[in-house]
Amino acid sequence: MLRRIAAGVGAAGAAALLCSAAAAPAAAQESSSTLEITVERAGAGTLDRYWLNCDPDFGTHPRPQEACAHLRESGGDLERLRSGAAYCPPTESPVEVRITGTWREEPVDFRVRYANGCYARVVGGPVVPSAWE
């Protein structure tokens, strides 16, 4: 009798494990994030567009793994890309950044204007691609 109970518990445990393993890819796919990052450098007259997908990390962004790791660490809080300490020259050569799409299934529409490329690189971190990437 004990063998039947143990076999039944073992089978139930195996079935639960298989069900949770099958659900894992669906959960990971549901939390996927897709962003379009547009960087306009008015002084240079350029407009660059990048795609960034996180979980899994890939896209036309030059450093998708670093950018996605930075976003995950901040909980997807793009407001953190708006200001920060930066030691940059006081030159005025505006860089405008717009990020749209979804982060963990939540809509995103973020805009920020940096004084110059140095501020964009330092404050925007790995999320905002530099002109030379």
UniProtKB/TrEMBL annotation:
Q: What is an example of a GO molecular function annotated in this UniProt entry?
A: serine-type endopeptidase inhibitor activity
InterPro entries, A to Z = Prot_inh_I16_SSI, Prot_inh_SSI_I16_CS, Subtilisin_inhibitor, Subtilisin_inhibitor-like_sf
Question: Residues of the signal sequence?
Answer: 1-28
PROSITE patterns assigned? SSI (PS00999)
Report whether Secreted shows up as a keyword of the record: yes
Indicate yes or no for the key word Translocase: no
The segment(s) forming the Subtilisin inhibitor domain are 33-116
- Main localization is secreted
Keywords on record? Disulfide bond, Protease inhibitor, Secreted, Serine protease inhibitor, Signal
Q: How does it assemble?
A: Homodimer.
The entry's protein name is Protease inhibitor SIL-V2
What species is given as this protein's source?
Streptomonospora litoralis
